[in-house]
Amino acid sequence: MDGFKPHSSHWGAFYGRHQGEALEIRPHPADPHPSPILGNLPAIAHSPARIRRPAVRRGWLEARPDNAGKRGSDGYVEVTWPEALDLVANELRRVHGEAGPQAIFGGSYGWSSAGRFHHAQSQIHRFLNVLGGYVRSVNTYSSGAAMVIIPHVLGPYDTLDRKSVTWDAIERSSELIVAFGGMAVKNTDVHGGGISRHVVRPALSGARARGARFVLVSPLKDDIATDLDADWLPVTPGTDVALMLAIAFVLVSEGRHNREFLDRYTTGYPRFEAYLLGREDGVEKSPQWAAGICGIAADTIVDLARSMANARTLITVSHSLQRADYGEQPVWTGIVLAAMLGQIGLDGGGFSYSLGALGNIGKSQLAVPLPTLKQFHNPVPDFIPVARIADMLLNPGEPFHYNGQALRYPDIRLVYWAGGNPFHHHQDLNRLRQAFKTPETIIVHETAWTSSARHADIVLPATTTLERDDIGAADRDPMMIAMKRLIEPVGEARDDYEIFADIAERLGKRGEFTENRSSHEWLAFLFETTRAALAAGGHPAPDFETFWEMGELQLPVKPDDGGPARAFRADPDANPLPTPSGKIEIFSETIESFGYDDCRGHPRWFEPNPTTRAAESRYPLYLVCNQPRSRLHSQLDYGDFSRSTKIDGREPVRINPADAAERGISDRDIVRLFNARGSCLAAAVISTDVKPGVMQLATGAWFEPDDADAEIAMCLHGNPNILTRDTGTSQLAQASTGQLTKVDVERFVGELPPVRILDGMTFIDK
Q1: Euclidean distance between CA atoms 289 and 298, whole angstroms
Q2: 20: DSSP letter
Q3: Which three-class secondary structure state does DSSP give residue 350?
Q4: Could you tell me if residue 562 is left (phi over 0), alpha (psi between -120 and 50 degrees) or otherwise beta?
Q5: CB 56 within 8 A of CB 84
Q6: Following CA atoms 266, 271, 273, 276 in sequence, which dihedral angle do they give, to the nearest 10 degrees?
Q7: pLDDT tens string 489-538
Q8: Can you say whether residue 497 is alpha, beta or left, with left for phi > 0 and alpha for psi between -120 and 50 degrees?
Q9: Dihedral, CA atoms, 623, 624, 625, 627, nearest 10 degrees?
Q10: Per DSSP, which regions of 535-662 are E strands?
Q11: How far apart are CA 482 and CA 503, in angstroms?
Q12: Which of 275, 501, 737, 751 could pair covalently with 280 via S-S, beta carbons 3.0-4.6 A apart?
């Protein structure tokens, strides 16, 4: 193919070739809607933001570990690989000897590569387990509340709720799709492990052409494709539960709920109904009650409830809704509402969590397993919910609650991070900056000079996916890709596997970590898992070298039979749910037994926390901090496509015309968003697609403080997490609440400071 080689990314399969200074990218020819994020890839080969040699923070070299307060503002010294590896090995040896593996936190976030072997999260966890273990994190920033509540209500996360409704079923059978939080097509450009075909757009268009109706419940009009002609209900941010309860109230008061389904397939409904009708607390959750909370007219709520009862209705709840205070509640209430309609398990009906949030959710399941690198056993019992890292670092030994457990934060002396950028994912970045000044040592593997790298002591340059061979494969995607190296490693960058192997050798553990296999031998070894399953199922099963020469391999998928929900509906006795009752838990005795005041035994509306409400009363605007369309999280923010969406080098923030006019803000003005936690600069985009009283600023701009030594810094680039709150959803999940915050905004006046975070690093001589 004219020198083009196959490769894959989280935002799509593609072919690439590198000639001279140019890296040329072609989307996979079978992909009907390739992601424009592929346009960020060519910058990998030459960007000044890339880390080219190992580097060590000057203050750590001179006065470790007593110089931690300079993290984030200190200079760096480049060193040789042997020097850097010796420093890492010696620090691991020291901390193990003085405090044990329970003093080491192993951070990662899994999105650094679509490859099955060079998967940074697997590599670092395998490495630390070989050394004796580490303190781990559980769940994700994207879906932390759902990952805890769904197992109590339906069973294992990602089973009944995300493997029972397909895009094909929606296209052929759904009559009404009510999307709480939306189904933004930009989000379906991405899936962990890769996407060979982006099918969401044609599936939704096909459903619309057949006559399906879409209802969007979101403060952002473009949270669903514009050609679907969706009815837009511009809900007040954070109030979807009140709207859901009012819909449920109409169903009950008009006798439109499915009593037979509730009796046979659920448990605890009478207790929920008592709350719904006000018998429990004296407050009827009526449309009139909800209208004053969510901003949707009572008549509109009544009409929607009746439509939902009279159609094959699918309820979807997005990631975004559960990334807020009491985030467990919208997911749980959406499940209950679908159960009241009695359509769970019907073709194109029922409930689906996060449909439209990732590209492969809604596709058919694979019929064979995928290659997986074994991580070994972690003997350290300590863990934290992933979004509680700042709490852990700032409050060692302090108690916290999580999912029925009374735990304590471990005392972390060394943080080892590979594959992730916490200064993108985490909230209240000024607080995180202080938290990152507490460990004795922070080690990172990074590809570029992100803020995470700039807050580390030892920085090891890692290769990107383009600089190594791997196997690309993802759950629910039927194509396995031979990811062939497209460019030589930039500078002295090395694969994570090679880095860990050399450190393990210094600690006498190389054989255990590598099992005496090279990277290529690992690829062949891991491929055998899938090849053997293909052969056992009577499918074409080439050996690894043949697959590598072919470049890609089609994998069989299971039939679209309605999945676990259909089986449960057909025979709940033969196919019970893995919940205490074997049914959908509308009331959970387990959760009630925890005694939490912020997550009770059935879903309910919680008024905003009084302390939070008082603290944020001075800030009149909601800020929605959603995912960007120009990159995956913060990856490749230096890429051409990501840069093309900025205005004068800063992230765009969308503002309703009324809010802009009130503040004298014009289109493309540089503005300052602010609250008590900090501030950031961004470029105003005036838009009627944003509800009045709401602004929208995507996450992912690399954090650049105006004063690295200041306790409360301003981000010059437009990272909204300088403004978001670092608090858990509830004691149940302790998940991220980073989707929403309260702010104000003003035109920036004065000399505009430059944005330099994407320009790389200037080093200090030894």
Answers
A1: 8
A2: T
A3: strand
A4: left
A5: yes
A6: -130
A7: 999 999 999 999 999 999 999 999 999 999 999 999 999 999 999 999 99
A8: alpha
A9: -160
A10: 552-554, 584-585, 621-624, 652-655
A11: 28
A12: 275
Fold of 145-356+561-588: Dimethylsulfoxide Reductase; domain 2 (3.40.228)
| Cβ proximity of 101 and 131 under 8 Å | yes
Q: Which distant-in-sequence residues (6+ apart) come within 8 Å of 212 by Cβ?
A: 170, 174, 175, 176, 177
* Residue 76, C-beta contacts closer than 8 angstroms, at least 6 positions apart: 55, 56, 57, 58, 459, 761, 763, 764
Question: How far, CA to CA in Å, does 357 sit from each of 81, 114, 170, 756?
Answer: 40, 17, 16, 32
CA end-to-end span of the chain, whole Å? 48
Cα 584 to chain center, whole Å? 26
Report d(CA 112, CA 262) in Å as an integer: 43
Q: Which structure tokens are listed for 693?
A: 């009283």
Tens-place pLDDT, residues 376-412: 999 999 999 999 999 999 999 999 999 999 999 999 9
The answer to whether 507 and 101 are in contact (CB under 8 A) is no
Rounded Cα distance between 167 and 202, Å, is 9
Segment 34-83, tens digit of pLDDT: 999 999 999 999 999 999 999 999 999 998 767 888 999 999 999 999 99
Q: Which residues of the chain have pLDDT under 70?
A: 1, 65
- Residue 112 has a pLDDT of 79
Give the integer Cα–Cα distance in Å for 339 and 346.
11
Distance, CA of 301 to CA of 293 (rounded, Å): 12
Query: Is the Cβ–Cβ distance between 69 and 60 less than 8 Å?
Result: no
Per-residue tokens: 35: 């992601």
Instruction: Give the tokens for residue 509.
Output: 């553990």
Can you read off the two tokens belonging to residue 216?
A: 């969007």
Would you state the CATH architecture of domain 55-141+369-554? 3-Layer(aba) Sandwich (3.40)
pLDDT at 1: 59
Instruction: Tell me the residue type at 52.
Output: R
Beta-strand runs (E) in 533-651? 552-554, 584-585, 621-624
- Positions marked catalytic: 109, 111
Task: Compute CA distances 703 → 654, 679, 718, 745, whole Å.
Answer: 19, 12, 7, 19
The reported pLDDT for the residue numbered 459 is 98
* Pairwise CA distance, residues 698 & 682, whole Å: 11
Please answer whether residues 501 and 513 qualify as being in contact, where contact means their C-beta atoms are separated by less than 8 angstroms.
yes
**Dist. CA 707–CA 679, nearest whole Å:** 12
The residue ranges of every structural domain in the chain are: 55-141+369-554, 145-356+561-588, 610-747
Alpha carbon distance 673, 625 (integer Å): 12
Contact 164, 564 (CB under 8 A): yes
The confidence score (pLDDT) of residue 610 equals 78
| Nearest C-alpha neighbor of 591 from the set 122, 221, 178, 152 | 152
Indicate the burial class of 766 (C-beta count within 10 angstroms; 0-12, 13-18, 19 or more).
exposed
Angle at 46 between CA 41 and CA 49, to 5 degrees: 90
DSSP single-letter state for residue 514: H
**SS3 state of residue 399:** strand
Which CATH class name applies to 610-747?
Answer: mainly beta
Position 438: which residue type? T
Task: Please tell me the predicted confidence (pLDDT) of residue 344.
Answer: 97
Task: Tell me how far CA of residue 108 lies from CA of 52, 122, 139, 190, 436, in angstroms.
Answer: 21, 9, 12, 19, 15
How crowded is residue 648: how many other Cβ atoms within 10 Å of its Cβ?
Answer: 11
DSSP label at residue 183: -
The single residue listed with the structure tokens 């509308």 is 586
